[in-house]
Amino acid sequence: MTNVTQVSRAKRQARASRALGLALTPKAAKYFERRPYPPGEHGRARRKQDSDYAVRLREKQRLRAQYGIREKQLARVFEEARRTHGLTGENLIELLEMRLDALVLRAGFARTIAQARQLVVHRHILVDGVRVDRPSFRVSEGQLVHVHNRSETMVPFQVAAAGAHRDVLPNVPAYLDVSLDKLQARLVRRPKRSEVPVTCEEQLVVEYYAR
């Protein structure tokens, strides 16, 4: 990837972060700190009060952005969450958190959700010894997520194994048992919404889809 492409992607992420009101990547966080207001020439101006629909829509977009997923993917998981026993909003977050790319990020193997997705797509990640190249793969309780032994010597994984991403990532959640030096992480149980490090008022997302 060229430096120009990296800069362009960083600017897009920074702009999206400002529009959604939360930092989506460590680099975007720096831009967001300097300009904590929406993009555009009227970004600093006081905005009129958003409609209920606009508030719910933005919350749904915030959730999508944090997991880097498409609208159809989120809608599909929402339907599953709605059919599952318990609170729909909590179910939604918990199911999204069991995606393979999300767990690769939480374990510290990647620095951003985009990088985690790329590692999975490029077939560097295994689940119980089997290569999985679908970021949306649902990891089950007890399964081991680990890096292929031929990939372990690659620079990105050596950096990860040294703990270089821990300074920008939340603490490892209790539902993951991580051996970072071995580039292994086991999902010991289903995540609980209160433990999942995403910024979201999930009830607003439920209300958006229930409209």
Key features of this structure:
211 residues; alpha+beta; Structural Genomics Hypothetical 15.5 Kd Protein In mrcA-pckA Intergenic Region, Chain A; five-stranded antiparallel beta sheet; 9 helices; 46% helix
Structural account:
This protein is α+β, with helices and mostly antiparallel strands and 211 residues long. It has a domain at 100-189: RNA-binding S4 domain (Structural Genomics Hypothetical 15.5 Kd Protein In mrcA-pckA Intergenic Region, Chain A). Helices cover 46% and strands 8% of the residues. It has a five-stranded antiparallel sheet. Strand 1 (125-127) and strand 2 form a beta hairpin. Helix 3 crosses helix 9. The mean pLDDT is 88.
CATH superfamily of the domain at 100-189, called what? RNA-binding S4 domain
Give the CATH level 1 class of the domain at 100-189: Alpha Beta
Order of helices and strands: HHHHHHHEEEHEEH
Q: What profile does the largest beta sheet have?
A: 5 strands, antiparallel
For the secondary structure, the number of strands is 5
CATH architecture of the domain at 100-189: Roll
By DSSP (H or I, 4+ residues per run), the number of helices equals: 9
Low-confidence stretches: none
Percent helix range = 40-55%
What's the alpha carbon Rg, rounded to whole Å? 18 Å
Could you tell me the strand content as a percent range? 5-15%
- CATH fold call of the domain at 100-189: Structural Genomics Hypothetical 15.5 Kd Protein In mrcA-pckA Intergenic Region, Chain A
Class of secondary structure makeup: alpha+beta
